[in-house]
Design goal:
Layout (H helix, E strand, L loop, with lengths): L2 H8 L5 H12 L1 H6 L2 H8 L3 H10 L5 H13 L7 H19 L3 H9 L3 E5 L2 H14 L6 E4 L1 H11 L5 E5 L6 H12 L3 E7 L4 H5 L2 E5 L4 E2 L6 E2 L6 H18 L9
Parallel strand pairs: 1-2, 1-3, 3-4, 4-5
Antiparallel strand pairs: 6-7
Length: 260
């Protein structure tokens, strides 16, 4: 696992100082390999203790471990693979076919019965998908609250009641903050719908319903930059809402349904 992978997994737990340290490291990787702890702290305008807390947050054992990761990353510089374009298109097609075939009856019934709908994404792309879900659900005459940030996450959990529905959006499905949150919501009786990467992961096991999408890590040949296609998250969201609209129309026989 690379340094960037560790950041991706723990991004939602980072505070302003953590972001300051990470931004400096991203822009000065070569220099950081030679810096002692106090020099890196001075460059980031934080204390050495703050740097060490940041490293602990992303599951590193200490400063020497951090230096080892930087050295490893320097020996494994990313190279863009042109086959990634073809693979990304293939994953998008698989995702659309998967959601079209998915049986969402239980989820839709739970949504019909719920007073409140929530969505929480564990990173920037995931949050964008949550906001897209909110926008699409307006056409289904439902209001969805998007949870943003750690404080709002706690506030929303305190407000949630048994029978509410929460969409949890994660790339890997193994984000520890997301999964701890999912476990806490499940104890409260909240119905959980995961949107995450296809395959074995903890989030899909915790949630009542899982809508998988297919994606892959794509290195774009720039240190510190890893691309996950946001398109891989949007088809499940958009198609899910279209299926929900169809469910609502069929549930009310007095409303016409067009089709062959």
């Amino acid at each position: 696992m690379s340094l960037d992978d560790l950041i991706q997994e723990n991004y939602d737990r980072m505070n302003a100082n953590d972001h300051r340290v990470w931004q400096y490291i991203c822009r000065h990787r070569e220099e950081c390999r030679k810096m002692p702890l106090h020099q890196l702290a001075d460059a980031c305008e934080v204390s050495p203790a703050t740097v060490l807390r940041f490293l602990k947050l992303i599951n590193m054992d200490g400063y020497s471990d951090f230096k080892a990761f930087l050295k490893w990353d320097s020996l494994n510089k990313p190279v863009f693979n042109q086959h990634s374009i073809e693979q990304n298109s293939f994953n998008l097609t698989r995702t659309i076919a998967s959601i079209q075939q998915a049986d969402c009856t239980e989820l839709f019934e739970r949504m019909d019965q719920s007073e409140r709908l929530y969505a929480y994404g564990s990173g920037s792309i995931q949050k964008s998908a949550a906001k897209a879900l909110k926008n699409y659900l307006i056409f289904a005459e439902r209001i969805l609250h998007v949870i943003e940030g750690a404080e709002e996450r706690i506030m929303a959990m305190n407000q949630m009641q048994k029978g509410d529905v929460a969409f949890l959006i994660s790339v890997s499905g193994n984000n520890p903050v997301m999964n701890d949150y999912a476990n806490a919501l499940r104890v409260k009786g909240v119905y959980l719908a995961a949107i995450c990467q296809d395959g074995a992961n903890d989030l899909s096991k915790i949630c009542h319903f899982c809508l998988p999408f297919f994606t892959q890590r794509i290195d774009v040949a720039y240190p510190g930059v890893v691309f996950y296609s946001s398109a891989g998250l949007l088809p499940p969201v958009e198609t899910l809402v279209l299926k929900y609209i169809d469910h609502k129309y069929r549930k009310h026989a007095d409303r016409p349904v067009s089709g062959p």
